[in-house]
């Protein structure tokens, strides 16, 4: 039996996490640091190095044969660089090279965080068994990834499936990406909360103005809070329907903090999807909440690294990382 492990990094605007992951997707060692997102690029890299040092201090580290990175994007997998919108100190930052040096030359695979989440959901989550899927992270931003023909499809740069920056409102608000009316500008957690506040919603005594607080208000019947989630659901539905029409996915999996709103999000999302996904080959599209939870980024980064080291023909579509030999 193989005892190899895969190391993983999950890099976002609020946290940097690292782990050692086994062939069953179990996280054996984990470390994390807050992302110094407002500081310079080297300060952010120091946090990455600290996470790697903590994970690398485990005696299990010697069994690591590869390292996967799921990073906020955009990323450039071909160049090995990252330019996260929410980490301004990293623009074209050579993350793959720096991580390879920090780990003594381990093979490194870089994908966007949405692609990493997709790898996790296809391996052991809600997209398991589907040959064609879109998986989404709806949180501070909106990202995504694709499974096509039974295989993870990161695309040449590692960003395929980045649904958050599909425009669904041609004359909509400017998005930080430079576009207008992007799904993210309407459906992300901060924008759900912003719209509710602009519409007259007010937080409770605790002063919580997060999307979670807006969801709680919606559950009590607050009309403004309900309307903000319905608008977010409409934007998500439009983006999902466009993706399904383009590449014929069978399921759209929605994860991230905003998905924790449950029926406040999913009921209007399914209702809106019926209005947008009208062609015969997309009408039966399934929408489901993600199952892999907060560790999806780490597990998916490990899966992407393992897949990158084995010819695709050797990996069954529905058991991508289930056998230790895949590592």
TrEMBL record:
InterPro entries: ATPase_NBD (IPR043129), ROK (IPR000600), ROK_cs (IPR049874)
Signal peptide positions (record): none
Protein name: Sugar kinase
Organism, scientific name: Streptomyces niveus (Streptomyces spheroides)
PROSITE patterns: ROK
Family: Belongs to the ROK (NagC/XylR) family.
């Amino acid at each position: 039996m193989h005892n190899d492990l895969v190391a993983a990094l999950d890099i976002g605007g609020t946290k940097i996490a690292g782990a050692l992951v086994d062939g069953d997707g179990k996280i054996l060692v984990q470390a994390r640091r807050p992302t110094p997102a407002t500081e310079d690029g080297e300060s952010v890299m120091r946090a990455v190095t600290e996470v790697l040092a903590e994970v690398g201090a485990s005696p299990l580290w010697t069994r690591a044969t590869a390292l996967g990175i799921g990073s906020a994007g955009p990323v450039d997998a071909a160049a090995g660089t990252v330019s996260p919108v929410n980490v301004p100190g990293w623009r074209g930052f050579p993350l793959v090279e720096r991580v390879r040096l920090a780990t003594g030359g381990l093979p490194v695979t870089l994908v966007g965080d949405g692609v990493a989440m997709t790898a996790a959901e296809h391996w052991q989550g809600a997209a398991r068994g589907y040959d064609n899927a879109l998986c989404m992270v709806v949180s501070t931003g909106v990202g995504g990834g694709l499974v096509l023909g039974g295989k993870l499809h990161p695309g040449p740069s590692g960003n395929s499936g980045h649904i958050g920056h599909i425009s669904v409102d041609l004359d909509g608000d400017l998005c930080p990406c430079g576009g207008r009316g992007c799904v993210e500008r309407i459906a992300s957690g901060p924008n759900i909360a912003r719209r509710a506040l602009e519409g007259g919603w007010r937080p409770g005594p605790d002063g919580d103005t997060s999307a979670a607080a807006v969801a709680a208000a919606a559950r009590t019947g607050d009309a403004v809070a309900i309307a903000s989630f319905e608008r977010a659901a409409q934007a998500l539905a439009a983006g999902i329907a466009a993706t399904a029409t383009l590449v014929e996915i069978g399921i759209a999996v929605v994860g991230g903090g905003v998905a924790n709103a449950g029926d406040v999000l999913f009921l209007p999302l399914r209702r809106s999807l019926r209005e947008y996904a009208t062609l015969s080959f997309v009408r039966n599209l399934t929408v489901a909440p993600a199952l892999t939870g907060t560790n999806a980024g780490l597990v998916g980064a490990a899966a992407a690294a393992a897949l990158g080291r084995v010819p695709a023909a050797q990996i069954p579509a529905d058991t991508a990382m289930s056998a230790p030999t895949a590592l």
